[in-house]
Amino acid sequence: MSSLAVTVLGSASPYPRPDNPCSGYLVSTANTRLWVDAGTGTLAELQRHTRLTDLDGIWLSHLHADHCADLLTAYYALLYADVRLDAPIPLFGPPGSTDRLAGFLTNGPTRSPVESAFAVTELTDGHHAEVGGLTLTTRAVDHGMPAFALRVRSGDRSLVYSGDTAPCAALTTLAQGCDVLLCEADSATASTDEPPVHHTPEEAGQTAAKAGVGKLIVTHLSPFLTPPEAVTRAAAHYPGRVDHAAPGEVFRMA
Q1: pLDDT value at 2 more than 70
Q2: What are the protein's GO molecular function terms (predicted)?
Q3: How do residues 200-230 score in pLDDT, each as one tens digit?
Q4: Among candidates 136, 208, 152, which has minimal Cα distance to 5?
Q5: Which one of 130, 157, 233, 246 has the fewest CB atoms closer than 10 angstroms to its CB?
Q6: pLDDT attached to residue 192
Q7: Cis peptide before 14 (omega within 30 of 0)
């Protein structure tokens, strides 16, 4: 049996609220800890559960600030504070992650040594990696920029995280038969003027139903949605259990 769990560090979109940081999750087993998305405010919440130096890796879905901004403060913690880093933390991120971080952090003629804090691997569609006891599979998804969804497997249990994306075949395929789908619902209504880049709650339910997942957790809700409304609307299209990714919640796949 697996002890795979996901702890919600934050789920606010597109800016942090009191008591709810932006997107960030701690995916863990008894022996492995993976920080998935590092949105604004999530570093502080991460430290309620683990130390930075105890992380086995970091995975980023895309480079919008509400999913990656706390890497900037993590960098300072790792290199210039009381944290003692034995080796750079493995960081899996979209193409350009290293230069994007360096661009924010460099303040002078010398490039900030991002590589001293993070050992960066750029994600590609279909990328596979082993991090501690976790198997990571990444698929490119539809967000109008390089963006990825993630499947995490530990033993016979699996979690799929949508990142930010419109409904797409890649996410449905990646989520097929998983125990839990953690899916964004950042659109209150379907877009009629532009190509969609987010799910509505109804679409989150439809994706979960098509993929035959064991449970749906809606996250990254539009500011114009309440959690009960999002859950109710998603549940109308998915026959299984639907929950909301409330900050501090721990969901276990046992």
Answers
A1: no
A2: 3'-tRNA processing endoribonuclease activity
A3: 999 999 999 999 999 999 999 999 999 999 9
A4: 152
A5: 130
A6: 65
A7: yes
User: For a pLDDT cut of 90, what percent of the chain falls above it?
Assistant: 93
Nearest to 187, CA basis, from 169, 165, 156: 165
Q: Could you give the C-alpha distances from 71 to 40, 42, 63, 193, 253, in angstroms and in order?
A: 9, 10, 11, 34, 28
For 8, residues 6+ apart whose C-beta sits below 8 A from its C-beta are 25, 219, 245, 246, 247, 248, 249, 250, 251
Nearest in space to 59 (alpha carbons), one of 94, 86, 87: 94
Query: Tens of pLDDT along 159-205?
Result: 999 999 999 999 999 999 999 999 999 998 887 667 899 999 999 99
Whether this prediction's pTM lies above 0.90 is answered by yes
pLDDT averaged over every residue in the chain: 96
The answer to whether the CB of 25 falls within 8 A of the CB of 8 is: yes
Distance CA 104, CA 83 (A): 21
User: What are the backbone dihedrals phi and psi of residue 156, each rounded to the nearest 5 degrees, phi first?
Assistant: -100, 15
213-240: string of b/e by CB count within 10 Å (b at 16+)? bbbbbbbbbbeebebebbbebbbebbee
